[in-house]
């Protein structure tokens, strides 16, 4: 889908099958946002009493033949003072869904002047929402309903002529970020028999070639040389070999210390010998969501030319069962040199991340941020409304929280006190991989902290946010791409 900016000066004669206008409170406010040349044609085409400001509430007007739009959708957009970035994303998402419902290839979303967040941010939010809403995962099915569906080919963001420069930058950013999140969602959605560690690596290599990123893929031999025995231990229960994917964006020719993004790329998680229940195990294709988000974020960072050095690292494996599979009670080593007593093979994500985080240290980073579908406990703590963020640097945690608010991918801090680390004490190794039922999200983060040295580090546990029912207008059931947008926002905020 193509996303572009349109000047509102052209709307009266702009050929579009669907123009979407925001409704904030009253008929008078609707009239105020109707561009000149359209209002006269709207007279008598809709019932005033039907207008509601509730976000997503639709009132249709059919204008028939003639210049300009053929249909107008008066779409609830909430109170004028609350027309912020997230509301604009949802407004744009509703616009796209409405276009799909009536089977038109183009939709034009008019933002008016109600926003108070600046033209660039408003345009970015609209482009993100429209791009995200248009995504569908259909590459593996062929049914008549899909064959007959009209594909949305164009999403137009319409803004006043006086803000075109700022708005153009916003549309460019929003389109790039939306496409990156959609790429992550596609990777997430591919089943385990397709999206293996080697497939994930191949997709990263392909994307890197298209976006001008440097890429390195390590296989078993290289991983053994790097002493990544924790990652290799998880993979030894599968016929699919482990991979470590490293993507480099050199945005600062001055050679400043890089920001490092690390994402868990567990392409299928059976739980290993500590096997998961059968019910819902099909969703374990989403256990690579952190890795998909990092790959997607690196795509957007490269496309937008962020003037910083950024490295994305994705450790990838499967967690399955064969005669060589890791067993409860095994003691394994790690790149860091620390030994780990494995008491639950279903706590494998922290093992592959341990080696990746240790490798991140070798890059002498300015900061490390990892993201992973790490614990079910985070869903108990925060539900499906926010990820957890924990870290060694309070300023970094605050930055990520702010980036979450800006991007619409929120996170909330949890403590990382030393008292929790004691739950990881082992009688036979340097630490145990599970600290018991209490505070599971925190003890998992405590485990990761053992592998980041003295570097500024934060961990995002996204298990409650990576996939879901798709209740927002710009989401679909299944993959959410979380936290692609959050990571991009954070990196861009560091760039200033």
Structural account:
This protein is an alpha/beta fold. The chain has two domains: 2-160, Leucine Aminopeptidase, subunit E, domain 1 (3-Layer(aba) Sandwich); 180-495, Aminopeptidase (3-Layer(aba) Sandwich). The chain contains 16 helices and 20 strands. It has helices at residues 27-33, 39-42, 85-102, 119-134, 144-148, 164-189, 197-211, 220-225, 229-235, 289-303, 349-361, 377-382, 394-407, 418-421, 440-449, 484-495; strands spanning 2-7, 19-23, 58-62, 71-76, 106-110, 154-159, 214-218, 243-250, 259-263, 265-269, 309-319, 331-332, 340-341, 367-372, 387-391, 411-413, 431-432, 457-461, 467-468, 478-479. The strands form four sheets. Strands 7, 8, 9, 10, 11, 14, 15, 16 and 18 form a nine-stranded mixed sheet that branches. β3 and β4 form a beta hairpin. The model has no long low-confidence stretch (mean pLDDT 94).
What's the quick description here?
This protein folds into 2 domains: 2-160, Leucine Aminopeptidase, subunit E, domain 1, CATH 3.40.220.10; 180-495, Aminopeptidase, CATH 3.40.630.10. Helices cover 36% and strands 19% of the residues.
